[in-house]
Design goal:
Number of helices: 23
Distance between the termini: 121 Å
Structural class: alpha/beta
Largest sheet: 9 strands, mixed
Strand content: 15-25%
Length: 812
């Protein structure tokens, strides 16, 4: 019907001078959809209908809209009033529109329900206000969610109990407009901003007004002044929500709305840009460089930095992601979550330095990582808010406490040092008045100290709550926001993978200095004389070589057994030259110190000591106990296929052994049993260099010591002398790239010394804290397979005069 079909109501609550409301309807049989429309009968605004001043497009006064949003009943349901009038028809009509009527109490009183069009959003809010009018003749409903219908007034509907055209007297004009002194709506209606177009729609989709006094007061409670609010161009909507317009090229392209209860919404289909982009545009127009630009997580954080006088502050429109996604950003056309960066690309390219001041929580840190990956980490700095600083401070205090305990053997509790569980004398004197000091005075001092500690704890707890710019600004308002300024001034370069400062390693360096890990100077290899030259350091690579049948593999086995005995180390062994049963025999012999077999087994099997005395072989109990020990400390890497294993395959299984068994050592024996296929354009020297680099990285990343056994090349005219590391077959890189180089050499000349004498030549030690170059002599017990130290002075009787037994060096 047209406006001429409407007549004025005689009801005293309605004004006869107001404009009538045109009505439109659709058949009730139409299906219910979620496309921001309700089936049933609609009362919509006619674009050409005249309306009196102070009313909206539906002829509803602003005061009525305010009251309409304010009233809501909490419980109860009734189908009739005290006068006995039935409301079943209108309530049935509401239920047909999927509107819950359980909260209905009385006519002319609004009740709340879930909107059938938007379903109350993701939280299922009861955003639909419903009121039954004129004794049940019709009902009005209005959804207060801004995203329910961004076109504005379509959220208000009229519902009638019949399926036919509503009666003419069912349409009424709205109540009188509010007084202009109403603080909620006393905005200057001529100050609304003009906007742009998005998907054929106007932005903003509803009128925006200057903030009211109540809005300014709320900003002031967050330490944001009226001047800052105006500079940020913050506005408000008619229903009292704060509006943050997003400008690009002097036009509003998006608006973000915030209710006081921190519920956010944005314009549908709007272009996503950064909030505050106009400051960079202005600098570009004036030809000024943008040296520093701050990026924050929320609009209030932007206003907080503006309050301190920071010019270029940008806020992201969509908040922070829960976590970092993927190892690299997706292509631009697929990067929908961060399309606001690409929409502002030409402006962001003008910025020399970005300071990421996102929140100090997991989503804020994830946002900083995502932004830095797209902006370039070399241009990014990171602000650490008090929450993050306090977390690191407490971590450092805990490390200091452990360091003090480790260095002094005392227990530190609450700042008091306890030696063997008893308070120190100085502390006892202070507490109990020893040496003539009054106990009461000290009790007062203790109380003061406790109060100070409580104040410090309160301060620390407060720091842990300050996760962003506005939290810190509110906390530090009395100190002229010095804490916020300090955080901004102490922004740190954003970490770049592979690029570090020494300060990134202070904790590790301090642990190293205070010898907290116990491995800083290396671990004893189990032999007294050799410890002076070589100690095992986790994370290093040791190359072991020697001529065939010199005992290099036997010595490595003996070294593993010593480390397992003395330090409870476990190992992964990739030994392609040994059968599993033979390797088991060798390790158990060294573990028990007894031959595996009795003396009458096999020709040439050693079952006696150096003096010819027969050694008793392992008992069944020795074998059973040895098997348990062996299984706990050694893990085998073996290739059961016909193909030779590659270095990549071995290191892959070694990594699995680190994760599953916690191995501390890896033995690869020998080099020539591996598959060394390489690209045609790669020389053997380049291949060996790459292979050794892989092993060193594995050792460092997993804190594992790698022992690599390699044979020397064929030595022409060999006369029994020990080889050098440069004699290893394949490349000089075996010498150049290893951390430690060892040559195992067995004496074959009776004139040079006993035949059971083995010399360990330490040819290279990169870490001087763990050893030095030199020679050490061990005695090999053939029966048990063990290597033993010589007794003090014993070397003088067995070594030729050209050796100095005091330090293992050859005399000049």
């Amino acid at each position: 019907s047209s406006s001429a079909s409407c007549r004025a109501s005689s009801s005293s609550s309605l004004s006869s001078s107001s404009s009538c409301l045109p009505a439109f309807w659709v058949p009730h049989s139409a299906p219910l959809t979620r496309r921001r429309r309700l089936d049933g009968y609609y009362a919509a605004a006619s674009q050409t209908a005249r309306r009196p001043s102070g009313t909206d497009k539906l002829g509803c006064t602003f005061q009525a809209r305010k009251q309409f949003a304010a009233f809501a009943t909490t419980s109860g349901s009734s189908s009739s009033s005290s006068t006995g009038v039935s409301y079943d028809a209108i309530l049935d009509a509401l239920r047909r529109e999927d509107i819950d009527t359980s909260n209905f109490q009385a006519p002319e009183e609004s009740f709340r329900a879930v909107c059938p069009a938007c379903q109350g959003g993701s939280k299922g809010e009861m955003s639909l206000a419903v009121v039954v009018k004129e004794g049940g003749k019709y009902a009005l409903a209005y959804c207060h969610r801004a995203t329910c219908d961004t076109e504005g007034e379509g959220r208000r509907i009229s519902i009638f109990p019949n399926a036919s055209k509503p009666p003419a007297d069912s349409v009424r004009t709205a109540p009188n407009p509010p007084a202009e002194s109403d603080a909620f709506f006393n905005s200057n209606r001529d100050d609304r901003e003009s906007g742009g177009e998005a998907a054929g729609r106007r932005i903003p989709s509803r009128p925006l007004f200057k903030p009211s006094n109540d809005i300014y007061t709320w900003f002031a409670s967050r330490q944001i002044s009226r001047e800052t609010v105006d500079r940020a161009r913050a506005m408000m909507t008619r229903d009292g929500r704060i509006a943050f317009p997003f400008y690009k090229e002097d036009a509003i392209v998006n608006v973000k709305y915030r209710a006081v209860n921190k519920q956010f919404s944005q314009e549908k289909g709007a272009e996503k840009v950064l909030y505050g982009l106009e400051t960079i545009e202005r600098a570009m127009e004036e030809g000024r460089p943008v040296e520093v630009c701050y990026i924050v997580e929320g609009e209030m954080d932007r206003l907080s930095l503006m309050e301190l006088g920071v010019e270029h502050v940008l806020s992201v429109p969509d908040g922070a992601p829960a976590k970092v996604k993927g190892s690299a950003p997706p292509p631009v056309e697929e990067d929908k979550k961060f399309d606001y960066l690409w929409n502002c690309r030409k402006y962001l390219e003008q910025v020399e330095k970005f300071v990421l001041a996102t929140d100090a929580d997991d989503p804020g840190l994830a946002l900083a990582e995502e932004l830095s990956r797209r902006l370039g980490k070399e241009r990014c700095w990171r602000v650490r808010w008090p929450k993050e600083r306090e977390k690191e401070r407490r971590k450092r205090l805990e490390m200091d406490r452990r360091r003090v305990e480790a260095s002094s053997g005392s227990q530190v509790e609450g700042g008091v040092a306890y030696l063997d569980g008893v308070a120190s004398d100085a502390y006892s004197e202070e507490m109990y008045g020893i040496d003539g000091i009054e106990e009461e005075e000290h009790e007062d001092e203790v109380e003061e100290e406790q109060e100070e500690e409580e104040e410090e704890d309160d301060y620390d707890d407060a720091m842990e709550r300050l996760k962003d710019a506005n939290d810190t600004l509110q906390y530090d308002a009395e100190n002229d926001s010095e804490l916020v300024r300090q955080c901004l001034e102490e922004a740190e370069p954003y970490p770049i993978r592979g690029l570090f400062q020494f300060s990134d390693y202070w904790d590790e360096i301090e642990k190293y200095y205070y010898l907290q890990s116990g491995t800083e100077g290396g671990i004893s290899c189990g032999w007294r004389d050799l410890d002076n030259l070589y100690r095992v350091v986790p994370g290093e690579l040791t190359i072991v070589t020697g001529v065939p049948n010199s005992g290099k593999s036997e010595w490595v086995d003996a070294l593993m057994v010593n480390l397992a005995h003395n330090n409870d180390w476990s190992f992964a062994i990739c030994s392609m030259e040994n059968l599993v049963r033979d390797h088991c025999r060798k390790l158990l012999e060294k573990h028990t110190g007894k031959p595996f077999f009795p003396a009458n087994v096999g020709a040439g099997y050693a079952s006696s000591d150096r003096f010819g005395r027969t050694l008793s072989h392992m008992t069944p109990d020795d074998l059973d106990n040895g098997k348990v020990w062996l299984n706990n400390h050694f893990h085998l890497i073996r290739c059961e296929d016909d193909q030779l294993p590659s270095m990549e395959w071995v290191l892959g299984l070694a990594k699995a052994a680190v994760l599953r068994y916690g191995i501390r050592g890896l033995v690869i024996d020998p080099y020539n049993e591996l598959d060394h296929q390489r690209p045609k354009n790669e020389t053997e020297t380049e291949y060996v260099s790459r292979m050794l680099t892989q092993m060193k990285r594995f050792a460092q990343h997993h804190d594992v010591h790698v022992f690599f056994v390699a044979h020397p090349r064929q030595m022409q005219q060999w006369r029994g002398e020990p080889p050098g590391l440069y004699d290893i077959s394949g490349s000089a890189h075996f010498m150049n790239k290893c951390d430690n180089g060892i040559v195992v050499h067995r004496n074959r000349n009776i004139e040079a010394g006993p035949l059971d004498q083995v010399t360990i030549y330490v040819r290279k030690v990169r870490n001087k804290a763990a050893g030095t170059i030199g020679e050490a002599h061990l005695r090999y017990e053939r029966g048990s397979g063990r290597y033993m130290d010589y007794a003090p002075g014993e070397l003088d009787s067995v070594l030729p005069p050209s050796f100095d037994s005091s330090n293992g060096y050859r005399k000049n």
